[in-house]
Design brief:
The structure holds 2 protein chains of 2 kinds.
Chain A (H helix, E strand, L loop, with lengths): L2 H21 L12 E12 L5 E13 L3 E17 L9 E4 L6 E4 L6 E20 L3 E12 L2 E14 L4 E14 L25 E17 L2 E14 L7 E5 L22 E3 L5 E15 L2 E12 L4 E13 L3 E12 L9 E2 L16 E14 L5 E14 L18 E13 L1
Parallel strand pairs in A: 12-18
Antiparallel strand pairs in A: 1-2, 1-21, 2-3, 3-6, 4-5, 6-7, 7-8, 8-9, 9-10, 10-11, 11-14, 12-13, 14-15, 15-16, 16-17, 17-19, 19-20, 20-21
Chain B lengths: L3 H14 L23 H14 L17
């Protein structure tokens, strides 16, 4: 090296040392990554006309460990009150029904669709899952779930694996879940098609029941471009056991007038003033669905659209279209309108009412949730990220459900009376996402 | 030239067909929180629970967080 090079070299060395020297007076400490992330939410769901109201609080906690391993804990509490359609239909006279407990009666005015308002239930649910990488491109997830309410307990386990391909542009996933549910209805599970009897008479009622469900999910996630990602899932679900709703029943009607057959309670007893039979559903249900979701970024605004087609061996077919558009407001806030459209076809054993004199079908239910129906949701969410990068958000949604009954199921006077209990509900939620 | 040119055509053709996706350094948008497919697990779980209770179909997106006596 020449003398000149050495001098330049020294100058550079001196400059570098000076630079390093000045920055080391205040030691640089790498910022500790937040380890716990919480997602908390308070939700109000309220239907109009004194129908169902639900208040729920939930918290989702995630703990990141090193090497992409994480633990998820999800705890939720729910209280449900309010009136629910029982499956009985409106008729020309006031109606009295025995409540599910068998200890009391409730009434419905003439010409109105009967609702059972004796429900009050609190539900606790806990889900835990663990996820970790396996080999270079695989991720394994395992989870356990548990929920309990007054008349229902659920326990489940799930296991899943994902594998990345193509520079992590494609991910294949497969997951399996199994659950066992125990149903212990208030008053006992009615025997299928047993008649509703007087207060204190439980001869048509049994004890507790159970069901199990096996779910399989296969999915592909594919990056389509710098700003677009697509997910497609295929699901298969097999339920077996007690699938009937123990609190729902059907009205037995006159074949000409369509009016509910009258009944007189026993002497000195309170009880139903009509002939009602508890519903009876098949003891197995196989469902399949195809779900596709696309997210696309439009220079900072994000559109998320999804579509699901579902079909099963109860002949319920449904289509669900869901769209969300996130609109950033400044650097820290956003507005997100939401739209959802749902439609389903009735279960093959859905019956508006049972006709006196006709042979009982093998299965029947008048539960409006198994009828031909449409649901539309409009919602708006507002979110804001604070200086400490925590986020709070609020959303309000309006849900309207309308249904219809096939004309060949409407008899006589039924045509002039309300048939499907259309639903209007408000959903309001406050959320706070924070790191510790 | 007679070998190189077809080879280049094949090479470019194959490069074009090398499945959809982006390079690892092109993921700045995809990495954003609001571009994640599971961006709002709490909202999704609450909605799934509501619609499961009011409609006859459920799931599809992932596994539900547990059963309930509502459908």
């Amino acid at each position: 090296m020449s003398a000149k090079d050495t001098r330049i070299g020294s100058a550079i060395a001196a400059a570098t040392c000076t630079l390093l020297g000045t920055t080391t007076t205040a030691p640089v400490v790498a910022e500790e990554a937040a380890n716990w992330e919480f997602d908390s939410a308070l939700l109000y769901y309220g239907e109009s006309d004194g129908r169902v109201t639900d208040l729920s609080a939930s918290i989702l906690a995630r703990r990141d460990f090193d090497d992409d391993r994480f633990l998820n804990l999800d705890l939720a509490v729910d209280t449900l009150t309010g009136a629910s359609p029982s499956g009985a239909i409106s008729t020309g006279a006031p109606q009295t029904f025995t409540s599910p407990s068998g200890d009391a009666v409730y009434t419905t005015a003439a010409g109105e669709i009967p609702f059972d308002d004796t429900f009050l239930d609190t539900r606790f649910a806990l889900n835990v899952s663990w996820s970790q990488p396996f080999a270079r491109l695989y991720t394994l997830t395992a989870g356990l779930g548990f929920s309990t309410e007054y008349d229902y307990q659920h326990m489940g386990a799930n296991f899943g694996v994902t594998r990345d391909f193509n520079r992590r542009n494609t991910t294949l996933s497969a997951a399996l879940a199994y659950s066992q549910d125990d149903i212990d209805p208030v008053g006992g599970a009615p025997i299928g098609f047993a008649q509703m009897l007087d207060v204190g008479d439980d001869s048509g009622k049994g004890g507790s029941e159970s069901k199990d469900v096996l779910d399989l999910l296969l999915g592909v996630t594919q990056v389509l471009g710098r700003a677009t990602v697509l997910r497609v899932n295929y699901s298969y679900s097999d339920s077996s056991g007690y699938l009937t709703d123990p609190y729902k029943f059907l009205s037995v009607v006159d074949p000409l007038t369509g009016d509910t057959l009258a009944r007189t309670p026993g002497p000195g007893s309170q009880g139903p003033t009509g002939v009602y039979l508890y519903e009876n559903r098949p003891d197995s249900r196989r469902k399949q669905s195809l779900f596709a979701e696309l997210k696309h970024d439009f220079s900072g605004k994000v559109l998320g659209v999804s579509y699901r087609f579902a079909t099963d061996d109860w002949s319920v077919d449904s289509h669900t279209l869901d769209a969300r558009f996130r609109w950033p407001l400044g650097q820290s806030s956003y507005l997100e309108p939401h739209f959802r459209y749902y439609m389903q076809t009735a279960a093959e054993f859905y019956r508006f009412s049972l006709v006196d004199g006709q042979a009982l079908p093998e299965f029947a239910s008048a539960d409006p949730r198994l009828a031909d129906l449409d649901g539309i949701t409009f919602g708006l969410k507002f979110g804001h990220k604070t200086a400490s990068r925590n986020e709070w958000s609020a959303r309000v949604e309006l849900y309207r459900q309308t249904g219809s009954v096939a004309s060949d199921q409407i008899i006589g006077n039924q045509a002039g009376r309300p048939q499907f209990p259309d639903l209007d509900a408000v959903i309001a939620q406050l959320s706070y996402r924070f790191k510790l | 030239m007679r070998i190189i040119f077809p080879l280049l055509v094949i090479a470019f053709g194959l490069a074009g067909c090398t499945t959809l996706g982006v390079q690892p350094w092109e993921r700045e948008v995809l990495a954003r929180e609001d571009m994640q497919l599971d961006a709002n697990p709490v909202d999704a779980a609450l909605d799934d629970h509501i619609y499961f209770s009011k409609e006859a179909s459920s799931g599809g997106r992932g596994f539900g967080g547990g059963g309930c006596g509502c459908n």
